[in-house]
Design a protein that fits this description.
The complex is a heterodimer of chains A (about 325) and B (about 150). Chain A has about 325 residues and is α/β, with parallel strands linked by helices. Chain A is about 40% helix and about 20% strand. The chains are: A alpha/beta (about 325), B alpha/beta (about 150). The complex binds adenosine-5'-triphosphate (ATP) and magnesium ion. The site of magnesium ion (MG) has 4 residues of chain B, from helix 2.
Chain lengths: ~325, ~150
Amino acid sequence: MGASHLILAIETSCDETAAAVVSDDYRVLSSVVASQASLHAQWGGVVPEVASREHVTAITATVAAALSEAAVLPGSVKAIAVTAGPGLPGCLAVGVATAKALALAWHRPLVAVNHLEGHLFSAELDGADVTYPAVFLLVSGGHCMLVHAPQRGTYEVLGATRDDSVGEAYDKVARELGLGYPGGPILDRLAGTGTDTYALPRPMLGAGYDFSFSGLKTAVRRTIERGDVDVPDLAASFAAACMDVLLGKLKRAVEDLSPHSAVVVGGVAASPILRERLRTELGHRTQIRLPDLRYATDNAAMIGAAGWWRFEQSGPSPEGFGVRAHLPLG
Amino acid sequence: MWTLHLESLEDTHALAADLARVARRGDLMLLNGGIGSGKTAFVQGFAAALGVREHVTSPSFVVHTMYESGRLPMSHFDLYRLEDPSSIAQLGIEEYVDDGVTLIEWAERSGGFAPPHVTISLDLGAGDDERIATIAATGTWCERLDWLGEAS
Ligand SMILES: Nc1ncnc2c1ncn2[C@@H]1O[C@H](COP(=O)(O)OP(=O)(O)OP(=O)(O)O)[C@@H](O)[C@H]1O
Ligand SMILES: [Mg+2]
């Protein structure tokens, strides 16, 4: 592989400052993520103002670490990719400004990347391949959507959440159950020890491709307020309701569109319950693809892969591009 | 102070639409009430009546979302994740208020906002779709909500 086929990618859309070096065959030479999680745990959550200032503090060291871990000099980087949206505007601006400055200083082309498209490429890193047409379920703290890709790079958003994302519903229910905040992962673990005994709704399961989790969250609150709940059983019942909806919609998309593969990306792709049920319930119908756990949550390696794809398709992004908080996919 | 019984989601949307009709630049609306009481549902009805084209989703994760496509710019905050009043001060909410209409879910998490504002507190009612709304107004909101006197 020639040293000229490397891209430097930068991602700062939320609370992770990340940089990576990725080759044009989507091999990850380095992927550095400086997480602000402990800082925000102390604040109680992501504060946009604090997060953007934290990106300013961490960005140059993160980029330098990505270059040195990959053992490459700036001279052998062919292009620079950066997340331009969607995300928190002040946070995105730090990454974009840094990428523009590096592109100017190094005389390299710059590619603006959609964060959501980055997630879709997370299952194609390090030699893994997704066969198209594909259906993607993207589920993370801030996103919940079902996407059809007839071919790589072409997207049709089938549906998205009408209210809360799954991750948000998990964190809120965990707090109502007294498991702390953010307690989504604790809730998922506890669910593994309980039994699905509470009758909870499966919102919008029969209706289209959109998701809704606010009614489910409310039903859990009502159950808790009636008193005398078995916490592991209620956790298991809640998790089962969420998975039924996520898998139900993915299954419908697979039946309707007969894709070559079904791909689950985003933080929820790390859930053991989901991984298990995916294989048993959908494995016989289509190829199941999941990202490596490292690339399920926000990272810059996935931005590098999506950046290569965009660069090869349409070259550098126009000089004057800015950040777009609500950038849609496709 | 007004107390209204909302029998259904449609009632909540109708109340929100009534408030959206009298909303002005610089308005601050504080939304309180526990999980699932209908704060985001209220904002969805408010935004639709304001002419916002995007579909409003819960901002609990991102804390703040701006919508520019309606009759007035609409700022939607959610303080759910912010336990500590000093982190809320970091948001600089005041800087957005003059630009349009600002709605804040979990407003009670902050140390309090300077009036004028209108506070809408939502509680779960007996039936699944019933809610009880308590509305408290300060400043010009008192006259603007006169009609609620007859309604309730
Ligand atoms: N009369 C009603 N008014 C509002 N919501 C209702 C009503 N009846 C049923 N609902 C349902 O209750 C749920 C309210 O959830 P919503 O997310 O709006 O609450 P919230 O107060 O914003 O919660 P959170 O504290 O998590 O932000 C929705 O699923 C909504 O459809
Ligand atoms: Mg809400």
